[in-house]
Fold this protein.
Amino acid sequence: MGLDVKTNRVRIIGGEWRSRLIDFPPRKDLRPSPDRVRETLFNWLGQDLAGRSCLDLFAGSGALGFEAASRGARRVVMVESDPAILRALAASQAALDATSVELRKEDALQFLSQDTALYDVVFADPPFKAGYWPRLAPLLPPRLAPGALVYYESAAPPELPPGWETWRQGKAGQVTYQLLKWTRT
């Protein structure tokens, strides 16, 4: 029972907080990444994220960001613009004593255009059929540490502009997901 949409809960699947539940408010566009997809993603990334800095854009339920923190990420910045969702993330952060997690109430695109930090892993799971990739792609490279990976989840694989390549990809039901690399320095 990783995802229980009726009760708006998702289970952390690995790391220090394995099997702990995260609550999130009901929202039409809020659909946490399924267990199978998260398991595949963290197999790709490696189970231990110790020392890595992660950015969870469009944080939503927080499943990806809390999963990264549970697996030892040094820093996880979770960006969310919805006040009710942000309150739920703060409650989960407190319940888990997630000291490596920082919450930011901001639009994801605005955050990217103003932030100056570098990240080893960026999770981008925007509203499902919103087509965010063309707006995200030019904003991401300045935020990427050397060798960084970008996880992108959507209804269809993004068309990658020059400089981007797909490192790994998968599909589960209506969800396509991929790990992307920026190849230009």
Observations:
- The chain has a mean pLDDT of 90.
- The longest strand covers residues 144-154.
- Residues 163 and 183 are 5 Å apart (CA to CA).
